[in-house]
Amino acid sequence: MEVTKNTAVPYKIYLEEHEMPKAWMNLRAFMKNKPAPFLNPATKKPCTFEDLQAVFCDELIRQELDDTTPYFEIPEEVQAFYKMYRPAPLVRAYHLERYLDTPAEIYYKFEGNNTSGSHKLNSAVAQVYYAKQQGLTNLTTETGAGQWGTALSMACGFYGLDLTVYMVKVSAEQKPHRRAVIETYGGKVVPSPSTTTEVGRKILEENPGTGGSLGCAISEAIETARNTPNCRYVLGSVLNHVLLHQSVIGLEAKAALDKYGITPDIVIGCAGGGSNLGGLITPFMAEKLQGKNNIEFIAVEPASCPSLTKGKFAYDYGDTGRTTPLMKMYTLGSGFMPAPNHAGGLRYHGMTSTLSQLYHDGYMTARSVKQTEVFEAATLFAKVEGTLPAPESSHAIRAAIDEALKCKETGEKKKILFGLTGTGYFDMTAYTAFNNGTMTDYVPTDEDLKKGFATLPQIDL
Ligand SMILES: *Cc1c(COP(=O)(O)O)cnc(C)c1O
């Protein structure tokens, strides 16, 4: 058949059940230059286990603070949950290759094959499992685009925990059906900023009419966790333990590629807080750090919220209300308010400290792409590969297409792997705007960026 240039590789590579990962991989254990420790904002000293205990689950704090243990066993119950929707297929994008007429080979790891519609479930189930083990009864969280809230509601529904989700207001309005799915699994949804918390009321007073941001929603969720008995806060990205859980993406992808003797030349992922990208690159980057490969890693972010490409590498808060520990990361400033747009899950002012350090040390590159370019790639992908991609994932598709087109010019047969993090069924407001030609490309001005940077804490170390 014309379509398949290399028939040795099937359309989809699935792992057998016994080939699925039994342990998560901790990328930090392989880094010589470790990410800087989180700081307690009151003492400016590295955070201790006790500092974090009021807000986070114990086992997750242990994972969070551990930058030396290379592997963490996946609890059997979590492995069993994974089996409901994993292994996720590794797909050879033969149709996209043919459409682009490129000599490049394109592969994608598809994480949208569960009801949450994204990779977020990989960490949600682990986090709720540990919360239940600890005897907690309530959890709070934030959700941007809604995928994390859905994933966590699924996991809480399964384990019988109560969940309150602070959902970024523009998303709650744009995606009423997301909200309905969260509620169907038992989660309670509060559009943020809200009047239910002190920090929410303050943010509303200072920015009346704001559509909210992940940073605001996090502040509200943390405040509620502190004020509710037997409750903790859980986060769907940015933190080290989330990257650890998401390593299952990369471990499966690498095992699938290894079956056919394939080593990618380029690995691409969209980057919001950095969890899917961190998880996807983990086993490949660990090898690069040991000098075993020379893969090019590319983080793709929205031009509207360009933390890596325009941000500063500095200690900053993880939330707008300035309640989290300080993290050394690429950041636009915790006060940066991204313009409302459709890259919901990527609208975060910072970037996980692990990827920030790797980027700073030159192990990874980053680029930003504009919204309409992203949706051009998304609709092309939907037509030729069949799957309707999430807008977030489509940032990676855009970069994969651009790299494949470069190969067409140079004749290089590069092997490109990207993460297709989810599906876009709940993003039809965004697709409609693109189809109508009403979608705009907002890029923050220097003035906007300056306002964000002005909110960086002044820290003398
Ligand atoms: C949340 C989300 C992202 C971005 O989050 P990361 O932590 O950067 O991975 C990307 N794609 C989808 C589908 C998401 O739901």
Characterize the structure shown:
This protein starts with 11 loop residues before the first strand and ends in an 8-residue tail after the last helix. The protein contains 18 helices and 15 strands. The longest helix has 20 residues, at 240-259. The model has no long low-confidence stretch (mean pLDDT 94). Helix 6 links the parallel strand 6 and strand 7 (162-168). It has 461 residues and is an alpha/beta fold. It has helices at residues 49-53, 58-65, 76-82, 94-100, 121-133, 147-159, 169-174, 176-184, 198-206, 214-227, 240-259, 275-289, 307-310, 353-360, 371-385, 391-410, 428-436, 446-453, and strands at residues 12-13, 23-25, 71-73, 90-92, 105-110, 138-143, 162-168, 188-192, 231-233, 266-270, 296-302, 312-317, 326-331, 365-369, 415-420. The site of pyridoxal-5'-phosphate has 21 residues, from helix 6, helix 12 and helix 16.
Summed up:
The chain is an alpha/beta fold and 461 residues long. The protein has helices at 49-53, 58-65, 76-82, 94-100, 121-133, 147-159, 169-174, 176-184, 198-206, 214-227, 240-259, 275-289, 307-310, 353-360, 371-385, 391-410, 428-436, 446-453, and strands at residues 12-13, 23-25, 71-73, 90-92, 105-110, 138-143, 162-168, 188-192, 231-233, 266-270, 296-302, 312-317, 326-331, 365-369, 415-420.
Give the key terms.
single chain, 461 residues, alpha/beta, 18 helices, globular, binds pyridoxal-5'-phosphate
Amount of beta strand: 15-25%
The helix count comes to 18
Which cofactors or ions or other ligands sit in this model? Answer: pyridoxal-5'-phosphate
Q: How are the strands of the largest sheet arranged?
A: 1-4-5-15-10-11-14
SS content category: alpha/beta
Estimated helix fraction: 40-55%
Largest sheet: 7 strands, mixed
Multimerization status: single chain
Low-confidence stretches are: none
